[in-house]
Specification:
The chain has about 290 residues and is α+β, with helices and mostly antiparallel strands. The chain has a domain of about 170 residues. It is about 40% helix and about 10% strand. It contains nine helices and seven strands. The strands form three sheets. A three-stranded mixed sheet has the order 5-6-7. Strands 1-2 form a two-stranded antiparallel ribbon. The longest helix is centred in the middle third of the chain and has 22 residues. The chain is globular, with a radius of gyration of 21 Å.
Length: about 290
């Protein structure tokens, strides 16, 4: 039945307004939202504070041991996977303790290199903890603990309390790392426990190795089919380059320039002068063996 609009024209307001909004929300919940629907990089001013003179060092050894024990580097596939099913009760307790300990850190009193390693490691360790807390699970989006009617996954849930601030995974990525560091390589460092995601590195980030790990993760992904894959006269890219196009030059041309910067000879040759249609895809299956 058609409801009369406030202006008396009798237009179907559900069709004109309600249905499009409903469909957009449904698409976003299903993980097929357009780039415009991806979270924007909006800085959280509280976390911009830092102490350049600080010599405080955060111990990430527990996370490093976990990664070395449970991350499997699979040469044939080129995708690092986590042996979630093999994690022992003791190692789960140690991981929980590590995440809890990081929440006691006064992050705003650290220098910037320590902060960067802190946030990347915390994001990745918390993601693994969430998977283990709900294991077995085939897709991280099935862990529907974020607030909101059409939410999916754990990213919007305030799972952390740091310096009296409630913090979510989305906060770490989109309100801290992306806007404060302005380094698009962070997309290759934070891991969403999915096969389509850039590799979870088999070692913890530190101020000393962050630059090399960012570079390594970027080149691994750009030169892997899940990042860039020619399909006939078309080019299939990871949906990361669609969702976060703003971080890669703001256009498909900007994305291609970014990819060429890190591409090996084979991939670079396909990208050079490309003017065809670009497709996007992402594999949300859990990143386990």
């Amino acid at each position: 039945m058609m409801r009369a609009s406030p202006d008396g024209t009798g237009r179907n307001m559900w069709t004109e307004i309600g249905l499009p909004l409903f469909l957009s929300a449904m698409l976003f919940a299903l993980g097929v939202a357009p780039a415009a629907a991806a979270p924007k990089a909006e800085p959280w001013p509280f976390w911009a504070a830092n102490d350049p003179e600080s010599r405080t060092s955060i111990d990430h050894a527990p996370w490093d041991r976990f990664l070395k024990k449970y991350v499997v580097t699979n040469p044939p596939s080129g995708i690092n996977r986590v042996r979630y099913a093999s994690v022992t009760p003791d190692d789960r307790k140690n991981l929980d303790a590590y995440v809890q300990k990081l929440q006691q850190v006064e992050v705003t009193r650290l220098n910037r290199p320590e902060q960067e390693a802190y946030w990347i490691n915390l994001y990745n360790a918390l993601t693994v903890k969430v998977i283990l807390d709900h294991y077995p699970v085939k897709n991280i989006r099935d862990i529907k603990i974020s607030p909101g009617l059409f939410s999916s996954g754990p990213w919007g849930a305030n799972l952390l309390t740091i310096q009296d601030q409630k913090v979510s995974l989305n906060d770490i990525e989109h309100r801290i790392l992306r806007p404060l560091w302005k380094d698009n390589r962070v997309h290759y460092a934070v891991n969403c426990a999915s096969l389509g995601c850039p590799n979870l590195q088999p070692e913890a980030f530190t101020p000393e190795n962050s630059e090399s790990l960012l570079e390594k993760g970027t080149r691994e992904y750009v030169n892997h089919p899940r990042g860039v894959r020619p399909v006939g006269d078309r080019l299939q890219l990871s949906s990361i380059y669609d969702w976060f196009q703003a971080d890669f030059g703001g256009s498909e041309e900007g994305v291609l320039r970014h990819l060429q910067q890190f591409a090996g000879p084979d991939v670079a040759g396909r990208l050079r002068g490309f003017h065809g249609k670009i497709l996007y895809d992402y594999d949300w299956r859990i990143n386990e063996p």
